[in-house]
Amino acid sequence: MSEIAKYTGVFPIAPTPFNPDGSIDWASADRLFAYYNEIGSDGATVLGIMGEAPKLEPAESLEILKRAVKALKGKPIIVGVSAPGFAAMRSLAREAMEAGAASVMIAPPSTLRTDDQIVTYYAQAVEAIGTDVPFVIQDYPLITSVVMSPGVIKRIVMDNPSCVMLKAEDWPGLEKLSTLRKWQAEGSLRPIAIMTANGGLFLDFEMDRGADGSNTGYAFPEMLIDVVRFAKAGNRDGAHDLFDAHLPLLRYEQQLGIGLAVRKYVLKRRGILASDAQRKPGGALSALAKAEVDYLLTRLARTDRRAAL
Amino acid sequence: MSEIAKYTGVFPIAPTPFNPDGSIDWASADRLFAYYNEIGSDGATVLGIMGEAPKLEPAESLEILKRAVKALKGKPIIVGVSAPGFAAMRSLAREAMEAGAASVMIAPPSTLRTDDQIVTYYAQAVEAIGTDVPFVIQDYPLITSVVMSPGVIKRIVMDNPSCVMLKAEDWPGLEKLSTLRKWQAEGSLRPIAIMTANGGLFLDFEMDRGADGSNTGYAFPEMLIDVVRFAKAGNRDGAHDLFDAHLPLLRYEQQLGIGLAVRKYVLKRRGILASDAQRKPGGALSALAKAEVDYLLTRLARTDRRAAL
Amino acid sequence: MSEIAKYTGVFPIAPTPFNPDGSIDWASADRLFAYYNEIGSDGATVLGIMGEAPKLEPAESLEILKRAVKALKGKPIIVGVSAPGFAAMRSLAREAMEAGAASVMIAPPSTLRTDDQIVTYYAQAVEAIGTDVPFVIQDYPLITSVVMSPGVIKRIVMDNPSCVMLKAEDWPGLEKLSTLRKWQAEGSLRPIAIMTANGGLFLDFEMDRGADGSNTGYAFPEMLIDVVRFAKAGNRDGAHDLFDAHLPLLRYEQQLGIGLAVRKYVLKRRGILASDAQRKPGGALSALAKAEVDYLLTRLARTDRRAAL
Amino acid sequence: MSEIAKYTGVFPIAPTPFNPDGSIDWASADRLFAYYNEIGSDGATVLGIMGEAPKLEPAESLEILKRAVKALKGKPIIVGVSAPGFAAMRSLAREAMEAGAASVMIAPPSTLRTDDQIVTYYAQAVEAIGTDVPFVIQDYPLITSVVMSPGVIKRIVMDNPSCVMLKAEDWPGLEKLSTLRKWQAEGSLRPIAIMTANGGLFLDFEMDRGADGSNTGYAFPEMLIDVVRFAKAGNRDGAHDLFDAHLPLLRYEQQLGIGLAVRKYVLKRRGILASDAQRKPGGALSALAKAEVDYLLTRLARTDRRAAL
User: Fold this and answer.
1) Contact B157, B190 (CB under 8 A)
2) Residue B173 in contact with residue B198, Cβ under 8 Å?
3) Phi and psi dihedrals of B99, rounded to 5?
4) What is the nearest CA distance from D115 to chain B, expressed in angstroms?
5) d(Cα D303, Cα C279) in Å, to the nearest integer?
6) How many CB atoms lie within 10 A of CB C134?
7) What is the pLDDT of residues A73-101, one digit of tens each?
8) How many helices and strands, by DSSP H and E, does chain C display?
9) What pLDDT is stored for residue B95 in this prediction?
10) Which of C115, C139, C145, C176 to mutate to probe the A interface, most A CBs <10 Å?
11) What pLDDT does residue D1 have?
């Protein structure tokens, strides 16, 4: 399998399970990764923004990765290595690759503004981690404040042969996706994988627009897997029917800041996590918000029995 | 009716109809306002961000307002008067009130950062427009970059008796809404109306959280009206059922920047606008995007016949 | 004289004089413009950020411009027309040109991020004002938050033949200035004038780097005129000696937000303005700050007698 | 000596010396710290923004600190521990204190907006590092984009007894400094030290406004020491005379991004650093910029013989 062809299907974004005392809940972590594998995930991403990576000690991070590698039995694992300094990014990237990661993911720091600044940053990052380490561009302006035009993404991809994938989570992002795919069809942009994210809010149409799959963290990754499968099989209505049934909950989970609490709460209700705790400082759902999520689950269960908890 | 009690139900945000040559399509404007009135809107907002107000000549703006006042037969009209300078804001506000507006809406300029800066800005704005002009706070960080904590909103409301309403479109915003309503219940925040917006993405739960209604611009305001009516009548499931049927399209229309093109395209397909043109510089939907909207309309029509075009 | 050759020497940025009651002090305005002319200014800029333009009524703005045109006896006047909407920008620009302005100045709105967004904005602005109106690019990231790389400036200049000048006030900005001049020397960037600003904080070296002059608003424009004259005559040490003597005060005046109050206070002490009032909302110097400025003036007067007040 | 009384006088911000190959130049580091001690520095700050801390390996960071502690013979050392995650911040802070640091310095992350968000962040940071670790607030909006009103600083200081100092580098900042000192005089703000920075651009007046000293990194810390000494001795004119002589160079060094290259270049010319190299990715001065610095040094040497190199 080529380095690029690996990135297709569904790669869930893994949250990091904690015990209520703030220690890592390793049993839940093992259960979560095993579950990802069983439902047919094609890989996973660990230590991203939603994995509470900045709250982890280096040894904890490495252990999370190792358990994911083991449980997912060789499927590709993407590891977030964004860091304010290139020394830390390099260490994280080298250690991750040694521990079995398939590639590393890099988001631009929020200070970047001009096209040239962004392109230069990725050149420096690649020099820091080494050109032998496959990397993923994370394009997520809602979080980073950095806006990358399609042309900037093209320059990064063409300048750096070790770029294997774009994690596309700009919003709005459908036309951007079409532009990049058109350039690839015309041959002006070399092949890379494009998986989409931003909570999956537009996965239904992103598949039509040519995405290779989904790299996001909704609490029912089975839905993402089914939608991607339906879409690839040409079952457009089936993909939309399932997606639409989940959209009220998915939209609720896609809220910045609160989303992780929703995700962990649902995963706990599903019996996959023992606790919905976040390591401090972390958010928690109000009683009202939990009741709203419960209500959404009840409504969803009318269509998708996997939500009947 | 008290100044505050006016702001309840649904106040659509009116787009400004243009002919393909960029001139205002007055016939469509009249049709649009008459339509708002007929379906049971409780008021309307004109000259907001989605009304392409910055592209209008002063005389055009005033004429739009006058036609809205006439067609909506005395229902309250909110007029956007955000401007970089207080001279322009004052002129707009005074002219709007003379032309029959019920109140004016003010968004904070993007340069504001600290709590005190925001509070001071509103004090200065009120001094500029006059304390006799009722005003609406627009809280829309996705557009303005200005983040107002609940405490800042409280200070603005308590400092300025002419504040009649909060247009709540922070995202996430449910807990903020609950906090403000709790303060009002406790008596530490005086009564003002709170209508929600941000494309209506959370209207289903906002009604549960105590919103007075919806002040946004979805292309099927009938849905907003029904959802608000169901919610106020205690028909929670009915409200969610209808809302969920519209959510795939509503989510598509809520995209920043593209949303207005979607809205105008649907209003044109519905026969309310003669053209979906925007005055330059404006966006347009790609053929692919139009086909996606058509597909969403077809799917929606299975549940809501008003979408069968 | 070619359209571009006009922009050389010193163009003071004019503050707008107010009476303590907030009305415009026309006598001071006439005195100020006459004074600019007498000391040998080569032109002037009115209605810029430091001219409190957003607080002026349209009729006031036009009258300011007309008086500047008259007092400066045909020397070129640049008029700030930055506005949130192209309708207002167009009106301002057309009226300004009819009233005798030489060109209009446009700063990018703070929402722009990518290179393409900035280039597109200027294309739209030029379409709005008309290709027959000479315009000045204002590059002032400290105020606008928009960062323009040299390549973006080049694209704007090459795409729009009506661009006559860059007002260069990026910080740091010396290397940017050198890059643009190098491109002009090589022929890849067509000739335009480059005048520098940002309070004059680097005027000493900007002249060495190839600036055509100064377009800023220090309270002693005579100093700017002398420094530019010395620099053009090859008297480098003389330019630096005079500049350095003024630097402590100039640095004090270059503070964002407070700078205008300092400038007006000094101009009042010099007898040019009758009052240092700003129209509301405006800043005022504390007693301590005034004493600091007085102290700086006393110290400056030891070297430059024009500061002996 | 109380924890707070330590922070007075001049604490240079130490750059990290590198060899041209990117390795740390330990001999230069030792020479630099010894030099700080000899000229009468009262302490120092290491591993700040200007110390290229994000490019250092953890072991390197610790070694830098240890050498500073040793060379400065027990004078207080402040260590920058700003980090995107509290795990890393905690590790750095605990290790720094064990290695002999006097306190740690924390800047707010650029995502913070509201007053409450900033106050909460510091509460969380203090919980992470431990309430036994003295800390310094870094208020530097030009770099962090976070604007702290005086009231926010007050809340942080009053909420967290382990806060010992404010590093004040807001710009403009004189009135803010006066407000904080007034509150301390009135008793509504408990005593903490306030040292100023932002390249020293306003040190002359900051001492008059009540600063305890300077905590910045100009290439002639002797000047800072003399100015602070003169000011404390009531020799106001002497302080300004010396400051003004250095201001042209100091202003040149205060440029964001380029400043560190200027500082290292001058320290190399002074024989304190063997090389002006920065670890990659780092900036370098153009030949023209070096010539400009040389020219400024020559001019300065006419007044201050320490600049005769």
Assistant:
1) yes
2) yes
3) -85, 5
4) 6
5) 44
6) 22
7) 999 999 999 988 899 899 999 999 999 99
8) 12, 8
9) 97
10) C115
11) 57
**How many Cα neighbours within 13 Å face the side chain of D158?**
12
Which residues does chain B have within 8 Å of residue C64's beta carbon, measured at their own beta carbons?
none
Q: Which residues contact D109 (CB under 8 A, 6 or more apart)?
A: D82, D84, D121, D144, D146
Residue D162: count other Cβ atoms within 10 Å of its Cβ: 15
- What mean pLDDT comes out for the span B114-124? 97
Pairing of strands B135-139, B103-106: parallel
D287 touching C (Cβ < 8 Å): no
Interface mutation target, options A110, A111, A112, A114, chain C, most CBs of C under 10 Å? A114
Beta strands, E only, C116-274: 135-139, 163-168, 193-196, 213-214
Say what the ipTM of the complex is: 0.97
**Nearest chain D Cα to B116, which residue?**
D149
Contact A263, A254 (CB under 8 A): no
On whether the CB atoms of residues D181 and D207 are closer than 8 A, the answer is no
C110 CB within 8 Å of a chain A CB:
no
Which residues, numbered 240 to 269 in chain A, qualify as contacts with chain B under a Cβ-Cβ cut-off of 8 Å?
240, 243-244, 247-248, 251-252, 255-258
Residue D172 contacts C, CB cutoff 8 Å: yes
Reply yes or no on domain B4-235 having CATH 1.10.60.30.
no
**Tokens representing residue C286 in the block:** 């504390």
Q: What predicted TM-score, i.e. pTM, was given to this entire model?
A: 0.96
Structure confidence at residue C49 (pLDDT): 81
Say whether D83 and A86 touch across the interface (CB within 8 A): no
Residues of C in contact with A153 (CB under 8 A): none
Mean pLDDT of B27-35: 98
The answer to whether residues C277 and C19 touch, using CB atoms and an 8 Å cutoff, is yes
Q: Can you read off the two tokens belonging to residue C12?
A: 């003071």
Closest CA to D107 of D180, D45, D60, D57: D45
Measure in Å the smallest separation between the Cα of C25 and chain D Cα atoms.
29
Q: Which residues of D101-139 are buried (b: 16+ CB within 10 A; e: fewer)?
A: bbbbbbbbbeebbbbbbbbebbeebbebbeeebbbbbbb
Query: Which one of B176, B247, B250 makes the best mutation probe of the A interface by having the most chain A beta carbons within 10 Å?
Result: B247
Name the nearest CA neighbour of D135 among D163, D168, D171.
D163
Question: Measured between CB atoms, does D147 come within 8 Å of chain B?
Answer: yes
Do the Cβ atoms of B88 and C127 come within 8 Å? Answer: no
β-partners of residue D193 are D165
Residue C215 to residue B97: CA distance in whole angstroms: 41
Could you give the 3-state DSSP secondary structure of residue D106?
A: strand
Domain ranges across chain A:
4-235
**Tens digits of per-residue pLDDT, A209-265?**
999 999 999 999 999 999 999 999 999 999 999 999 999 999 999 999 999 999 999
Q: How confident is the model at residue B83 (pLDDT cuts 50, 70, 90)?
A: confident
Give residue for tokens 């149409």. Answer: A205
Q: Cβ–Cβ contacts within 10 Å for residue C100, how many?
A: 16
pLDDT in tens, B122-135: 999 999 999 999 99
- Are C200 and C224 in contact by the 8 Å Cβ rule? The answer is yes
Q: Do C54 and B111 touch (CB under 8 A)?
A: no
Reading the block at residue A24, the tokens are: 């890592």
- How many CB atoms neighbour CB D73 within 10 A? 9
Torsion of CA B39, B45, B49, B55, to 10 degrees: 100
Per the structure block, which two tokens stand in for C57? 């009524």
Q: Which residues of B touch A299 (CB under 8 A)?
A: 240, 244
Tell me if chain D has a CB within 8 Å of the CB of B179: no
Q: B280, C57: Cβ pair inside 8 Å? A: no
CA angle, B274 then B275 then B276, to 5° = 140
In a mutagenesis test of the B interface, which of A142, A171, A241 is the best target, namely the one with the most B β-carbons within 10 Å?
A171
